[in-house]
Design goal:
The complex is a heterodimer of chains A (483) and B (91).
Chain A: H1 7-15, H2 21-39, E1 42-45, H3 47-62, E2 74-78, H4 105-112, E3 116-121, H5 155-162, E4 168-173, H6 179-185, E5 188-191, E6 211-216, H7 219-229, E7 259-263, H8 273-288, E8 292-296, H9 304-319, H10 339-347, H11 352-365, H12 371-394, E9 397-401, H13 417-422, H14 428-433, E10 437-444, E11 450-457, H15 462-473
Parallel strand pairs in A: 2-3, 2-4, 7-8, 7-9
Antiparallel strand pairs in A: 1-3, 4-6, 5-6, 5-10, 9-11, 10-11
Helix pairs in contact in A: 2-3, 5-6, 7-15, 9-11, 9-12
Chain B: H1 4-13, H2 21-35, E1 67-68, E2 71-72
The chains are: A alpha/beta (483), B mainly alpha (91).
């Protein structure tokens, strides 16, 4: 049995009776036991429940009962998305034993479509980071070279999909957190348009910019998962009613006659040579497919990192004020503490990156500096949105490298937060403006490390975006993951 | 320039007992200096992404008890009597 099959292949093999859900889950659990020691994708594995669910689905198939579109497919969930009955830790000591009393909307939709939640996967604490090194459970490792970072913050999602420990995963993308690990681990990752996928049950970090998004090995798998998770949710008033969209339909529409803009500010200084040549090669592939490619300048991109981290830190600082260890948290007696001392003591359990962002957030929101930082950041955001609107009057898609550099060694940049922040330079535009963006695996470097290409589309053009991503994917032939 | 006093004050604001304030001084200062790049941006308008939504398009503000697995969410929490939720004793 090949665990590396795509989600759509899985569905067709299980429908044909070539495989059973129980066999596939059992084999996936074997695979997890074999590779977890090397890659550390999972925080919690829900082994027994996964097997039980698989048996129920096999029975339904045998009895020819109605089965959901995902047919018992094993899916991992980033550990900042609430799952009833399985702990949701956010990779933080603050929530180490927290079990949510309800499922996030995306999780209940997956379950309704008969997906099997096989476990919860690693992340940077509260999704703050770009490498998954800031997890209180230790870093995840890149399956292409276990000495290297897998990207982040949804590193566990990227790793679990790339290392064949599940068929697909859900991550969250606040500044590139789905696309970064997708690029570094040679899998596909989508940040949908803001408002297309419910955030109900996603532990809040920066509400105005974050989105839940799927990670999978193929673009068609992303389309399949989007069919399940997207759409209006009465529990999340930022979701938009757009009617039913079938993302799989016309996926092979191609890019013939489309106009594609290469973002100049994302391809210049600071971009690794091999990443740069892969980007040029991707543009050539689009041209071969009869798309017209032109350079596009978006000068607000140069200020996006400063604007993004100002806004994200401000929202993080506000969101994380709720963790006082009273409503949920860990066991620490209150005896001998006055109220503030108790709260400050327990909150010292936040890791260094979360603490840093709370300090920054408090600073940029403080009375004397609000106009200097936060208000200006919001203006850059508005300027960027206006430039994006103008750009999409000229082109259908924008293209850039997902990550400006190749994956790097674990520990190499951990003490240099500003350098880590600058790695998000190409991804945060989509979060600040709400547009959808996808990372497609495109090349492997001379050192054997993956390179992803990012495509952006205008708001709610996610279906067209998947068509362009599929067209690019069909031009590639990449090696299998070595782990 | 951010100094130790300021970092400790920020720690106080966010209610975190900083184990090693020195560690954060240089990093926070370096990042805030980078944020100063926002001063260089030439704004072509005073616009921010603020949106105006007509009152009529807002949903009706009515109470809907939230149910999960056939139970209200509040009934799943550890409870004292009536509708009070038990929190750790502080004093």
């Amino acid at each position: 049995m090949n665990l590396g099959i795509s989600a759509t292949e899985y569905v067709s093999q299980i429908r044909n009776g070539q495989i059973s859900a129980e066999e596939f889950i059992a084999k996936t659990l074997d695979r997890i036991r074999t590779v977890e020691g090397k890659v550390h994708a999972y925080i919690t594995i829900d082994e027994q429940n996964a097997l039980n669910q698989a048996r129920i689905i096999d029975k339904k198939i045998k009895a020819k009962e109605r089965i959901g579109a995902l047919f018992g497919m094993p899916i991992s969930i980033k550990d900042n998305i609430c799952t009833s009955g399985i702990r949701t830790t956010c990779a933080s000591k603050m929530l180490e034993n927290f079990i949510a009393p309800y499922d996030a909307t995306v999780v209940s939709r997956l379950k309704q479509d008969d997906a099997i939640i096989i476990g919860k996967v690693n992340l940077d604490e509260f999704a703050m980071g770009s490498t998954t090194e800031f997890s209180c459970f230790g870093p995840s490792r890149n399956p292409w070279n276990v000495e290297y970072v897998p990207g982040g913050s949804s590193g566990g999602s990227g790793v679990s999909v790339s290392a064949l420990e599940c068929v697909a995963s859900l991550g969250s993308d606040t500044g590139g957190s789905v696309r970064s690990p997708a690029s570094f681990c040679s899998v596909v990752g989508l940040k949908p348009t803001y408002g297309l996928v419910s955030r109900y049950g996603l532990v809040s970090y920066a509400n105005s910019i974050e989105q839940i998004g799927p990670v999978a090995r193929k673009v068609e798998d992303i389309a399949l998962i989007m069919n399940t998770i997207s759409g209006h949710d009465s529990h999340d008033d930022t979701t938009v009613e757009k009617g039913r969209v079938d993302y799989l339909q016309d996926l092979n529409a191609g890019v013939k006659g489309k106009k594609i803009g290469l973002v100049s500010q994302m391809t210049g200084d600071g971009v690794d040579k091999e990443v740069s040549s892969a980007t040029n090669a991707a543009v050539s592939k689009f041209q071969d497919l009869e798309a017209e490619c032109i350079p596009i300048s978006l000068d607000s991109v140069e200020h996006s990192v400063a604007a993004y981290y100002t806004i994200a830190s401000a929202e993080a600082s506000s969101n994380l004020s709720r963790y006082d260890n009273l409503r949920y948290g860990f066991d620490l007696g209150t005896e001998g503490y006055e109220f503030k001392a108790y709260v400050s003591k327990v909150r010292s359990n936040f890791g260094p990156e979360v603490t840093r962002r709370m300090l920054l957030g408090a600073f940029v929101l403080s009375a004397g500096y609000y106009g200097k930082y936060y208000l200006k950041a919001q203006k850059v955001r508005a300027m960027m949105k206006s430039q994006i609107d103008d750009a999409f009057k000229k082109v259908d898609f924008l293209v850039a490298p997902t990550m400006p550099i190749l994956p790097f060694k674990i520990g190499e940049k951990i003490d240099d937060p500003l350098t880590l922040y600058l790695l998000d330079a190409n991804t945060i535009m989509a979060n600040l403006t709400g547009i959808p963006a996808i990372s497609v695996p495109f090349a492997i470097s001379s050192s054997g490390l993956p390179i992803g290409i990012q495509i952006f589309a205008n708001s709610f053009q996610d279906k067209n975006l998947l068509q362009a991503a599929y067209a690019l994917q069909q031009t590639t032939h990449l090696p299998e993951v070595p782990v | 320039m951010v100094d130790r006093k300021e970092i400790e004050h920020l720690g106080d604001l966010v209610k975190v007992e900083l184990q090693d304030p020195e560690k954060y001084i240089h990093q926070v200062d370096q990042i805030l200096n980078y944020f100063n790049n926002l001063d260089k941006v030439e704004y072509d308008s005073d616009k921010t992404l603020r949106k105006e939504i007509p009152y009529e398009s807002l949903r009706e503000d009515k109470h809907e008890p939230f149910m999960t697995d056939g139970m209200s969410l509040i009934s799943k929490l550890k409870r004292d009597q009536n509708s009070f939720v038990r929190a750790p004793k502080m004093i």
